[in-house]
Amino acid sequence: MGAELLQFLVSGLTVGAVYALVALGFTLIYNASDVVNFAQGEFVMLGGMVTVFAVAAGLALPLAAALAILVAVAVGLLLHRLAIEPARGASAVTLIIITIGASIFLRGVAQIVFDKQFHQLPAFSGSDPILLAGAAILPQSFWVLGGAVLVFLGLFVFLEKTLLGKAVLATAANRLAARLVGVDTSFVLALSFGLSAAIGALAGILITPITLTSFDVGTMLALKGFAAAMLGGMGSPLGAVVGGLLLGLLESFAAGTISSAYKDAVAFVVILAVLFTMPQGLFGRRSVERV
Amino acid sequence: MTGRSDALLSAENIGISFGGLRALDGVGFAARAGEILAIIGPNGAGKTTLFNIVSGLYRATEGRITLDGKDVTQAPPHRLAALGLSRTFQNLQVFFRMTALENVMAGRHLREGSSLFADLFRLPRARRANAATRDAAMALLEEVGLADKAELPAGSLPYGALKRLEIARALATNPRVLLLDEPAAGCNPVETEEIDRLIAQVAARGVAVVLIEHDMKLVMRISRHVVVLNQGRMLAEGTPEQVRTNPEVIAAYLGTHGVKEASLA
Amino acid sequence: MSARWATLIILAVIIGTIPWFFPSGFYFRVAALIWVTALAAVGLQILMGQAGQVSLGHAGFVGIGAYTMALGPKLLGLDVLLCLPLGAAIAGCVAFVVGRPILRLKGHYLAVATLGFGMLVTMVLVNEVALTGGPDGIRIPRPELLGWRIRGGETFYWITGGALLIGVWIALNLQASPSGRALAALHDSEVAARTVGIDVAAHKLRAFVIAAVYGSVAGGLLALMNGFVTPDAAGFLASIEYVTMVVIGGLASVPGAVVGAALLVLLPQTLTFLHEYEQAVIGLLIMLFMIFLRAGIVPGLAALLRRRPA
């Protein structure tokens, strides 16, 4: 029984780490602009697909991964420059539909540039499961978890310790005030898009050896990442991480103990239950209606 | 003073805390039909918070509110509106996507004898309700001097006009108690005078008016009774004359430094 | 003539005359698909555009309507035509029960809650294979009215066109009524709406139930027309499409929802010649429309026309 629980725990955390990374991407862009970027999942797809095709073209894995992140960042910056920036001042819902358009566009381009097949990457350090207290754990899980932890720490240091990071936080707290004290909020938004793209792509690279990838994996991941971000409390990076991990764990335990067909249902019922008692999510800003 | 039997609206011993911060403590007032009561005090005194509690937007931690003898301490805003309490906002809460006329029409919500079914199928009942609402709203716009702006989007009106629009919308509910949160803020002297007259008219019809105002001249001129708050507590209350000469009030308003200056002058 | 009547007359004229220009019977099917899709979108416009409440689960109600057409005859032996109002009633009741807690949430939190609702519906449809046929879908019996078999693209064209006309009429009635004003008020400022006596929770719930009934009737007609339904009709992507239709057409505009639906149904049909480029072009067009007509197509074009002196 203990081994089984450990198994659920590790697989839940692995999937959850990916959700957390997607949720972080949502949070960064949301904080800079109030926009929920539904193309977030496509960054994950790009990370996986570019790496797969670069490796197939003969590139070494680390180089292929670096290339994939570069491509995703370029796409993220272009998305901001060509689609979000020209619509500056439009309502949040208009901007959200633009990102939905972008998501369809990127999926469409991906099926032309790549193809419609499923692809796999070889696991970074072998695929022989490591036996730990009776549970069989894929080495790739450690890569995912390790990568996620590095991103969380890196982001924390960036936000808390660098001037640029503080500008990002200031923009999140109050855009107008940030602009008044000289923060270039448009640059912060571009930066958020680039950063979100990089984080998403990394998630895609790390998880592809376990879950496969294809041109349309982004939709489901965006949906889960969004749900995770809301569970944690929109706008809170800590909430995104906790929400993502929690969602992964919920799915994993629900699949293992209740029904794998209804694992998503269980996860959503829990999210709904949380939101009914905490309408701002677990770590969201609690607001008194100011009038 | 509080809890007088002839009070239409009375708030007794109201207290509220926000995350450990005591915003109001032991505050109360009583408003009578046809009378203008002013609540004054420096910024942060808790005046708007008191309005938010009385109008049902916030729940008081303690205290009791009665409207026409009924305990309404726990009543939600739309119930209070049905019982005859209406208000305006310091930071405008205009329906910006609607026209000026539609804003006031929305204020007639409780007086419209229509039903969802009639509305969906545009039955005669819904059409009659719409026409009656339009007429009543137009008359109110007339009263606040905005009739010529009826069809303009509210978002395009200047600040002073929006203040009057909110008053018209509040009046549209046929209130017996009207709470006005700084109705003259940001208005020029001419507009202030218009609002002054409007408030007096409303009170003369028998409405109990409770007013938060910074314009001391306005307050002293039109109110019968004044309540002074400072840092969430009652500082003084009485007639305008009693309040104006109260040394504590002067100190709170001008700061102790100001009192010294005043006494030196 | 009021804008309301103008809208209705234009729509009626379009529905009444375009069949003259159809080169083949196939076009009746495409147009009928536009009318049912638009009916669902108009329902969502009431919820999103008029009441300002987001739903990422609208297709869930479309699915309830569609599957009632299959399950009513199968489980209860009901006539399939009776299942149309039955589906509407079920969707309305579900919305009433689900909407109560969900609508307490705001903005993105409401979005995720409605998303969850849509997912639950889809999951039941996919997983309860014995009942719903699972991912492969389920057949709908051919409808019969007084011995006359309802079939053929042309017949469904007129049925769906008529349904849309009624749907738009009702939505426009609502918009210009006391209830519609209450929705518009709570959309702009919930606080102010409450203080003028509007029971915000009750009015949001009404809008949610109305939207659900629209979605369900549209779903039922769609199922009847296709003779078949799969869980995709209730899926997340379908929900996102409805939202896109309403926003791209113009959130504040009832005819906007029809235009948005027409656009999103027609694009894939007319762009098939692009083959694999189709999706990319659709995505690109959605972005361009939103960048250049931010308020949506109908309000955006109306503003352009007004600016240019006639």
UniProtKB/TrEMBL annotation, chain A:
It is a multi-pass membrane protein. GO terms for cellular component: plasma membrane. InterPro entries: ABC_transp_permease (IPR001851), BCAA_transport_permease (IPR052157). Its main location: membrane. Keywords: Amino-acid transport, Cell membrane, Membrane, Transmembrane, Transmembrane helix, Transport. It is found in: Cell membrane. GO terms for biological process: amino acid transport. The chain crosses the membrane at residues 7-30, 50-79, 91-110, 130-159, 180-207, 227-250, 262-283. One of its GO terms (molecular function) is transmembrane transporter activity. CDD domains: TM_PBP1_LivH_like (cd06582). Belongs to the binding-protein-dependent transport system permease family. LivHM subfamily. This is Branched-chain amino acid ABC transporter permease. It comes from Falsiroseomonas bella.
Automatic annotation (TrEMBL), chain C:
Its main location: membrane. Keywords: Cell membrane, Membrane, Transmembrane, Transmembrane helix. It is found in: Cell membrane. GO terms for molecular function: branched-chain amino acid transmembrane transporter activity. It comes from the Bacteria. Pfam families: BPD_transp_2. GO terms for cellular component: plasma membrane. The keyword Nucleotide-binding does not apply. It is a multi-pass membrane protein. The chain crosses the membrane at residues 5-22, 28-47, 54-70, 76-97, 109-126, 155-174, 207-230, 242-268, 280-305. PANTHER family: BRANCHED AMINO ACID TRANSPORT SYSTEM PERMEASE, HIGH-AFFINITY BRANCHED-CHAIN AMINO ACID TRANSPORT SYSTEM PERMEASE. This is Branched-chain amino acid ABC transporter permease.
